[in-house]
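Write out this protein's structure.
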Amino acid sequence: QTGSQGKDNRNGHERLRDERHGTRTENLAQYGYGCFKKTERFVKAVNESFFAERSPEKPIDIEIRNALSGEAKEIPIEMDEMWSFYHDKGHQVWLRWAVEHETNTPPAFVFGAREHKYLDELLKLLEPFHIGEIYADGYGAYVSRIDEEKLTVGKKNTQKIERNHLTLRTRIKRLCRKTICFSKKLEIHKAVVGTFINIFFFGRIFKLSAIL
């Protein structure tokens, strides 16, 4: 092939400089090229829009019974954790998060080891959401940290959050069960997974050019 249809053998960074492809910053914003270490400032552990929509102080779109009683509607949630690795299989890290039982929308998440203190951290993030019934498996941390009146143990009511685990492992290669695509550092691992959760589940818009 010749002319405009000929094959472009230049390297990627050389093509980015070509005026036909726009500036490097424009391509970063459009295609998401760049280092994920710079996305750490973008990631938020709490779904702020989820909280704003369900705040008892919201002046519109509230249920009549809430307006009369002055009490916020309790939100039933599913809670679970998912293992992954960074650097190699000797460095394990757990994603511990929750989703609303009715809408499958996650309000918050944390990263850490499979220790009780990280469940405490997640529960603290969930305090403003007026959490009602909590569905989880029989892991000891849930039994010891959550009131018996609120906790319902069993896999029957955690199918939505379990399905979200499949979405994460399918969309993010470094979360596949059999992979060699590990993040070199824990910070990068958190940035990659956290960015995906913020965009895919929280519905936030990611503009890489704004944080470079």
